[in-house]
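Lecture notes, unit on protein representations.

Consider one protein chain, 245 amino acids long.
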Amino acid sequence: MTAVCRAPDCTATKLCRAHIVPAGFARTLSAPGGHNKAVRSTGAQRAVPPHGDYDPNILCGDCDTALGRFDGYAIAFCAELPPTPDARTGQVFSHEAFDGAQFARAVLAILWRASISTREQFRAISLGPYEDRAAAILFSGAPLSSLPEFEVVLSRYASSAHDARKFVFMPMRIRSGALTAFTIGLSGFLVWAKVDQRPTDKLLAPFVINAASVLRSPIVRFEESAEYGFFQKAGRRGRERARTS
């Protein structure tokens, strides 16, 4: 059966390799001539594909490009920010000239692509009854406020030992209290996004970016994060495998 583009009102059958997390994030990670690494529970290996997972069965080139206006903003915004090596957990990183609605749409585009993907690794990522409303925002110009269940908070990683801007994590579904939420790692930020009609916790609510013109982002020391713990365990397992092979 021929796959058809999943964007609203599109019937194109010539589809592209649509990256779930925009490839532009991964392109900034490696030095010229170098290559990215994919960290899994068994260790770190050369990333294949080099710029992150894609699905060749969900979008045509034109519709993928349409999402690029949101993707491009988030990629460029993250790329212009300096590292935050000396900040401490509990501090707040601030940056003016920020289009929170545009960044939130970029996050929604990632989650929507993962939600419609047929790839096994994204099976747990589903927008459920919100999928069509998300598509209307991304393709048909519906306002972000038409999906009030969707809110985004960015936490800024800080590290004096690692350049946390060089880490990208694929979307994961989590339980955030009673809420259905997702996390994504994007070039120095841990993205938290809830898609749930219940309200955001009062501690996170002041940092929601959806309508923000100035970014206020809680600092998280990278070495204190669950993601760092995962990398440490993966590194140990990789070394153990190397010694026994």
